[in-house]
């Protein structure tokens, strides 16, 4: 495969009085056959939800749904009996499997921002499951997702790994992924350069393996996600 660049400004955009959402791939009424996902990575939505508003109860099936909280808080309720609050720095992994109904409401006093990620499972028909953890970012990459739940990461039903890192100005982060995988880099905040390409908030970059390189953070630093996809 070749490199795939998704500039922030070219993402699909949905705006309501309570929701500002940027879609890296086709979502809802936004449909482009050229942007249906990247391997098993089906959705990256960068959502800002107004205080007191959110998504009411709605169903999902056969999808691994991952929420990375960036700012604020989000209240989650589901048909499995969970009633949880996600706060900045926490990650939720929900396996929709044979079917789940849930709501996501911002009960806080300020807008919240999150990245919601959908990953296709390795097969249909898994039992629904819910996992949630706070993550304190360590130097370098902190694992958020791992198929076996290693090193404190959340397990999902797909051989996909996800890391997050915050790099200071000029700091380098190695972009090493397995030789049988593909990579996707998503900038949450800040700026940097990878594979000779400048990147800023909201940009995404897909790349093949092996492609040994690093991300160098710009003057404002960089907060980024790195996916290893199979």
From TrEMBL:
SUPFAM superfamilies: RmlC-like cupins
Domain Pirin N-terminal: 14-119
Record-linked CDD domains: cupin_Yhhw_N
Keyword Metal-binding: yes
Note on cofactor: Binds 1 Fe cation per subunit.
Required cofactor names: Fe cation
InterPro entries: Pirin, Pirin_N_dom, Quercetinase_C, RmlC-like_jellyroll, RmlC_Cupin_sf
A molecular function GO annotation: metal ion binding
Keyword Iron among record annotations: yes
Name of this chain's protein: Pirin-related protein
Organism the protein comes from: Cyanobium gracile (strain ATCC 27147 / PCC 6307)
